[in-house]
């Protein structure tokens, strides 16, 4: 039975007014998370490596709370425990693989979405991976190298994929047929049987860019019958169209409209 104070009210969690109380709350929250490790069994998408990563993040947050206290916007034990819980056991992540020929703008697209800015990029050797959060939906995004010798390894990244982003250089008319061949090669892969396909018609800011309709015809997108697909005109440099495309993926993989 809960104990009541002299005024009959249930005691509230202590406010985090000083460093000692902050530290106490942090310790209690860590114990709470550790005692709840069986949640991993109920959330099988949280792997051991991800859990270690979350733990490292948690330790960093502990140091922040010790230093800054209530300046981080957490004013009671319940809120702190909630923040730590979702840090340790996050909502399900959806996996996206980003493919396309070299110089299509795949990495620029990824980091424009991830950082909101254009970064200097070099040809991707192997892959880059980043976590994106869009309207409270978490995406694990794999950017795969597009050089000829690397495209044969794309399939090794497909397992568990929910969406494929195909980035097209809309000015590269000479190689659009090559990308069509690569697209038709990946579509039958059994690891992608439930994946949706988003085509980013990139570099629309350039005057000689093919239109979305031209690219649709060149890739024979209307022949795709076993996957949901969508083509989105965009510019990775300006960001135009990128979030429209990501929003389409979010709606398709979650089955919920995003607002």
Automatic annotation (TrEMBL):
Belongs to the small GTPase superfamily. Arf family. One of its GO terms (molecular function) is GTPase activity. It comes from Mikania micrantha. GTP binds at residues 100-107, 146, 202-205. InterPro entries: P-loop_NTPase, Small_GTP-bd, Small_GTPase_ARF, Small_GTPase_ARF/SAR. It comes from the Eukaryota. Transmembrane segments: none annotated. Signal peptide: none annotated. GO terms for biological process: protein transport; vesicle-mediated transport. NCBIfam families: small_GTP. Keywords: ER-Golgi transport, GTP-binding, Lipoprotein, Magnesium, Metal-binding, Myristate, Nucleotide-binding, Protein transport, Transport. Mg(2+) binds at residues 107, 124. This is ADP-ribosylation factor-like protein 5.
């Amino acid at each position: 039975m809960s104990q009541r104070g002299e005024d009959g009210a249930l005691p509230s969690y202590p406010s985090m007014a000083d460093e000692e109380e902050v530290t106490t709350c942090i310790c209690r929250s860590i114990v709470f998370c550790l005692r709840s490790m069986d949640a991993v069994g109920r959330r099988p998408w949280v792997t051991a490596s991800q859990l270690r990563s979350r733990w490292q993040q948690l330790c960093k947050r502990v140091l922040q709370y010790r230093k800054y206290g209530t300046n981080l916007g957490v004013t009671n034990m319940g809120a702190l425990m909630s923040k730590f819980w979702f840090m340790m056991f996050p909502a399900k992540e959806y996996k996206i693989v980003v493919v396309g020929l070299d110089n299509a703008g795949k990495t620029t697209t990824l980091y424009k979405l991830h950082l909101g800015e254009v970064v200097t990029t070099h040809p991707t050797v192997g892959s880059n991976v980043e976590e994106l959060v869009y309207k409270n939906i978490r995406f694990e995004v794999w950017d795969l190298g597009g050089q000829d010798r690397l495209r044969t390894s794309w399939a090794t990244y497909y397992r568990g994929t929910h969406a494929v982003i195909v980035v097209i250089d809309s000015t590269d008319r000479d190689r659009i047929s090559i990308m069509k061949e690569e697209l038709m090669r990946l579509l039958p892969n059994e690891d992608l049987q439930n994946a949706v396909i988003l085509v980013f018609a990139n570099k629309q800011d350039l005057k000689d860019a093919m239109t979305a309709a031209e690219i649709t015809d060149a890739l024979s997108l209307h022949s795709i019958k076993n996957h949901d697909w969508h083509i989105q005109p965009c510019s990775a440099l300006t960001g135009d169209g990128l979030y429209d495309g990501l929003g389409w993926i979010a709606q398709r993989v979650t089955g919920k409209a995003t607002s």
